[in-house]
Design brief:
Helix content: 40-55%
Distance between the termini: 67 Å
Radius of gyration: 30 Å
Structural class: alpha/beta
Shape: flat
Strand order of the largest sheet: 2-1-5-8
Strand content: 5-15%
């Protein structure tokens, strides 16, 4: 049965030891593991690098991991530095409050005349608190001064470069190769096939794509690109076992079971099946950085300080906390409603609508709609819609739609919806299509590089696809270099306003 359903089996301790020792085993590391080095203490970095040195001949990273590492490295360094600046600022504010606010309040009691001893004790204790805060600030500033700056010589990257020298996969040569994966990814994400479907909301981010060497990368498909490159690597070599180290513990990578808390069982069964089928691999094992170090200590008999394990656990926990806060501000639910609306104050009703909306002013109607909406100005119509909405400016049309809405600016469409709304939405739709068009991104890049014929051909493709607007072309500064070209002017004349 094990051979028939091997995806469901986890290697035993003895089998794991054999896999770690095998020359047919490849140790692969995710982007987050490399970036997390910047959050670890020096001793932790050294312990982790010590293990990587021991298995140096069998380590490898996909091209997309290396690319993401290089792109995000400075942001990680900047954020690490920012934390210390924030702490220093908070302590300064706290010290100021103690010295001014608390001191001024104590003066109002005029303790000096009636209770001089109490005033003396209070002043002494306030001074102690101020001295303690000053000492903490000095320690923070000392550590901060030792922190890497964005323009510093990056010794961490230097050591990572050394370990992964000639151990990085190949990238994609043509946009068509990426486009095939994006199209496959769209279908996979609809069916929640791992990896990466939890990143599908990244296409709503302010920067859903980026360009590198003339190719447009869609950020939401980053995990899928990594997994595809792993499959290609294993398929083209004699690798039988893959050990993947990642600190991304979401359920679009891991099999997670709720049993007295969340338990990471291992890779998703779908990932095992795909790797075994496509690349004829025999084992796929996942580790977090912490568990990877623990296993290395046991199997490789390498000295790992317990403090390093604690540091990794706490650092990764802190990183995830800040990531969750950041994503909570922008992440949307599957129904396209922003999660921050529904989770405000952390309270949801059974129908997932925010309690703070429906219980505003403590009044709910029988249909769970907030009374403050329907009872504004205390007037309801027979259909329970508020009279102030439909009677604004005292004008109603026959079908109870307020005339001021549909006749705004004096323009109505045949379906009685205001033309300015419908046309505004159409412009937005076209602009959104244009922004995310691969051809349009290529046109912008080619214009920047001076390849004006290539830019023209790409824009003509966009015109053929009916995703260009005159406003978009006239305001896009990336196209300034071709703006005076005859073909560009002719294109503008052909486009609708």
């Amino acid at each position: 049965m094990k051979e028939l359903f091997k995806e469901f089996y986890i290697p035993t301790d003895d089998e794991t030891s054999v896999i770690w020792s095998s020359e047919e085993t490849l140790f692969i590391f995710d982007t987050n593991v490399l970036l997390n080095f910047y959050s670890f203490e020096k001793a932790t970095q050294n312990d982790l690098l010590k293990v990587l040195e021991l298995i140096k001949s069998r380590v490898w990273i996909p091209f997309h991991v290396a690319l993401e590492f290089q792109r995000r490295r400075l942001d990680v360094i900047k954020n690490e530095k920012k934390q210390f600046s924030s702490m220093d600022s908070e302590l300064s504010q706290l010290s100021e409050k103690i010295n001014t606010h608390l001191g001024d309040n104590l003066k109002t009691f005029k303790l000096g005349k009636k209770f001089p001893n109490i005033e003396k004790v209070l002043n002494k204790e306030v001074a102690k608190i101020g001295a303690s805060l000053l000492n903490i600030k000095k320690e923070i500033q000392k550590v901060n001064s030792a922190q890497m700056e964005v323009r510093s010589v990056d010794s961490i990257r230097g050591r990572i470069d050394s370990i992964f020298e000639n151990k990085i996969g190949s990238g994609y040569e043509a946009q068509e190769d990426l486009q095939k994966i994006y199209e496959e990814g769209a279908l996979r994400y609809q069916k929640l096939i791992p990896p990466g479907y939890n990143d599908r909301s990244k296409d709503r981010d302010s920067v859903p794509t980026f360009m590198f060497r003339g190719l447009v990368y869609e950020r939401k498909y980053g995990d899928l690109l990594i997994f595809k490159q792993i499959i290609n690597k294993v398929k083209s070599s004699k690798i039988k076992n893959v050990i993947f180290v990642t600190d991304d513990t979401k359920d679009d990578w891991w099999e997670i079971v709720q049993s007295n808390g969340e338990k990471l069982i291992g890779p998703r069964l779908e990932l095992k099946s795909e790797l075994y089928k496509e690349a004829q691999a025999e084992n796929l094992i996942f580790y977090t950085s912490e568990n990877f170090l623990k296993e290395a200590r046991t199997i490789l008999h390498v000295a790992i300080d317990d403090k390093s394990l604690v540091d990794i656990k706490e650092s990764v926990k802190d990183i995830k906390y800040f990531i969750n806060i950041r994503e909570a501000k922008t992440k949307e639910r599957e129904d396209n409603q922003p999660r921050w609306i529904f989770d405000k104050n952390g309270v949801l009703r059974e129908d997932n609508s925010p309690r703070w909306v429906t219980e505003r002013e403590g009044a709910l109607r029988e249909d769970n709609q907030p009374r403050w909406i329907f009872d504004k100005n205390g007037v309801l119509r027979e259909d329970n819609s508020p009279r102030w909405v439909t009677e604004r400016e005292g004008v109603l049309r026959e079908h109870n739609v307020p005339r001021w809405i549909t006749e705004r600016e004096g323009v109505l469409r045949e379906d009685n919806t205001p033309r300015w709304i419908a046309e505004r939405e159409e412009i937005k739709r076209r602009q959104a299509q244009t922004t995310h068009s691969v051809d349009y991104e290529r046109a912008r890049a080619l214009a920047s590089w001076g390849n004006y014929e290539g830019c023209r051909d790409a824009l003509l493709q966009c015109e053929h696809a009916n995703i260009l607007t005159k406003l978009q072309l006239m305001t896009d500064i990336s196209l300034d270099s071709v703006r005076e070209s005859d073909w560009f002017k002719e294109l503008l004349l052909r486009l609708p306003d």
